[in-house]
Amino acid sequence: MKPLKRYQYERYAVLCKLAYPRVFKHTRYGFDPGGQRIIRNRSGKIMIRVLWSSHREEVIVVFKGSHSPSDWMINLAVWLKSCENFSLDYSIHAGMYYLLQQESLPARNEDKLGLSVMARLESILFPLIRKGKRISFTGHSSGGAIACVVADYVEHHFPKSVKRIVTFGQPAIGNWRFHKNYRLKHKTYRICCDIDIVTFLPPIPFIYWHVGKLLWLYNGRIYENTPTIIRLGRSFISWIIRPFSYHLMSKYIRNKDFFDDR
């Protein structure tokens, strides 16, 4: 598995952050003027951005995380739902399955009515793949979890078409069969930051499983594939001692930039 380079990390992280505002000037980041397609959810809100340029092989698909009260309510649907409709031999979080199956409202005049989010994304990606493009997926929170399932779906239909998957602060999404049958373990990078509680969700041991290579950004270092129980233990200790850590002189030295030169 190739290491994730700093410029790649920064590129995907910036795109994930910029996916949340309603307006995103994609041409500022090297994409063609016509190199963006938007996929909306059932309420007409932007859920996914597909970005590309004619002179690059890579297409980047960016998934938003939960960004409304209704989305957070959907996250509570923690039972498992079979992905037979996607021709995938495993089950995933029922709420996130619904997000992919919900109707996608048109974003362009030529968009057809009645398509699901997954079907609309397929109608955009598959023609690009047939033109020789390779697809990278990224997303934050629940968007990162959904990105893994969609990437596996695309790889199922077009082997070797997926370049990489990079997720930030994602919860687990699938059962053991998902963990076992996921095709892209060697191309998936799961970024966790410090004591991010969402990365431990859903809190149901041995039912939900993560996939890919874990990169844990903790205490100024990157830890690879730290077992969940160890990460949880260290995070719990950090939660307990965090108020006292602000008493250390290192914190006072670090905050010297708050003062003007006099």
UniProtKB/TrEMBL annotation:
It holds the Pfam family Lipase_3. One of its GO terms (biological process) is lipid metabolic process. Residues 60-204 form the Fungal lipase-type domain. PANTHER family: ALPHA/BETA-HYDROLASES SUPERFAMILY PROTEIN, FUNGAL LIPASE-LIKE DOMAIN-CONTAINING PROTEIN. This is Lipase (Class 3). It comes from Vibrio quintilis. The lineage of its organism: Bacteria, Pseudomonadati, Pseudomonadota, Gammaproteobacteria, Vibrionales.
